[in-house]
Amino acid sequence: DTGVSQDPRHKITKRGQNVTFRCDPISEHNRLYWYRQTLGQGPEFLTYFQNEAQLEKSRLLSDRFSAERPKGSFSTLEIQRTEQGDSAMYLCASSLAPGVFEQFFGPGTRLTVL
Amino acid sequence: AQRVTQPEKLLSVFKGAPVELKCNYSYSGSPELFWYVQYSRQRLQLLLRHISRESIKGFTADLNKGETSFHLKKPFAQEEDSAMYYCALSTGGGNKLTFGTGTQLKVEL
Question: Beta-carbon neighbour count of residue A62 at 10 Å?
Answer without folding.
Answer: 11
